[in-house]
Amino acid sequence: MNTGTAEDVRLTVWVRGRVQGVGFRWFTRANALSIGGLTGFALNLDDGRVQVVAEGPGENCHRLLDWLRSGDTPGRVDGVTEIWDTPRGGYDGFAVR
């Protein structure tokens, strides 16, 4: 799949580290909204990770992924795992769950 284009994609990311209780989901949402064209959510998982799902243009999803890996996030990111897929739709905006 060519993820570097304007074609819509689905990006699912799992972020490990000190990413809960530090505003991580809120800042992820704010960043997704500022990039624009993205829908999805950021969700705390029971194991301490944050899951981020973003759908929209591949270039915009890459910008969000670059930010998640940048060290510019709240807390401390120890690792990021991502999966690219085709969009499923059904999201209204970008939510914190």
Mean pLDDT: 95
Number of strands: 5
- Please report the number of helical segments: 2
* Biggest sheet strand line-up: 4-1-3-2-5
Derived from helix and strand composition plus strand pairing, the structural class reads: alpha+beta
What gross morphology would you assign? Answer: globular
Q: Major β-sheet, in short?
A: 5 strands, mixed
The Rg value, from CA coordinates, equals: 12 Å
Distance between the termini: 28 Å
Helical amount: 10-25%
Order of helices and strands: EHEEHEE
Given as residue ranges, the uncertain stretches (5+ residues, pLDDT < 50) are: none
The proportion of residues in beta strands is 35-45%
Q: What would you note in describing this structure?
A:
With 97 residues, the chain is an alpha+beta fold. Helices cover 25% and strands 39% of the residues. It contains two helices and five strands. It has helices at 24-35, 58-69, and strands at 8-18, 39-44, 50-57, 76-85, 94-96. It has a five-stranded mixed beta sheet with strand order 4-1-3-2-5, covered by helices on one side. Strand 2 (39-44) and strand 3 (50-57) form a beta hairpin. Helix 1 packs antiparallel against helix 2. The longest helix is centred in the first third of the chain and has 12 residues, at 24-35. The radius of gyration is 12 Å and the shape is globular. It starts with 7 loop residues before the first strand and ends with a strand. The model has no long low-confidence stretch (mean pLDDT 95).
